[in-house]
Amino acid sequence: MTLNSALNGVNDQLRGALPPEIFEILEADRRRAAGTKFAEAGAKIEDFTLPGADGTPVSLGDLVADGPAVLVFYRGQWCPYCNLTLRTYQQELLPELTARNATLTAISPQKPDGPLPDLEFPVLSDTGSTVARGLGLSYPVSAPVREAMERLGTDLERVNGTWELVHPAVVVVDRDRVLRFVDVHPDFTTRTEPAEILKSL
């Protein structure tokens, strides 16, 4: 089963579990994001230092010191699509990246004071979406989506410090901090397949 086939299963489950009016609001939001302009392969990304989930700072320089870095931008631990994706990357991608001297790192706008994720690779907090904004990934949450998320018990103001989200994305950065692969998913129910990431390397 591919990652996106599994994500379709999550979407079907949520369709049945969520109130229809809330599901329709979220569906409309993912369609609205299509056509946004993002960073492209060949551009250079500025160095950054972000705190890990345990508070330890990690820089992009650290991540690309010995080889390319695969950066996975995700919405947050509250997002079931993100959780499935990160678990899949850990199982199917991490061993292959390690064999290729590449690092895997997840980045979200969540504050670093939440529960530690059960992952074997770094999870960094881009509070304020500074790094994501530089890649064109950050966007403000619309009023209808904010109301829907609050009804579901997700308060981004508390979790992120702001009502702002990021489009899920995978970027591959080489040792010179040049973007070699950029795959953005304005439709947050889809993600980059592990095979695509390995091919980009």
UniProtKB/TrEMBL annotation:
Organism: Amycolatopsis mongoliensis
InterPro entries: AhpC/TSA, Peroxiredoxin_BCP/PrxQ, Thioredoxin-like_sf, Thioredoxin_domain
Catalytic reaction annotation: a hydroperoxide + [thioredoxin]-dithiol = an alcohol + [thioredoxin]-disulfide + H2O
Gene Ontology molecular function: any one: thioredoxin peroxidase activity
Role of this protein: Thiol-specific peroxidase that catalyzes the reduction of hydrogen peroxide and organic hydroperoxides to water and alcohols, respectively. Plays a role in cell protection against oxidative stress by detoxifying peroxides and as sensor of hydrogen peroxide-mediated signaling events.
Protein name in the entry: thioredoxin-dependent peroxiredoxin
Presence of keyword Oxidoreductase: yes
GO biological process: cell redox homeostasis; cellular response to oxidative stress
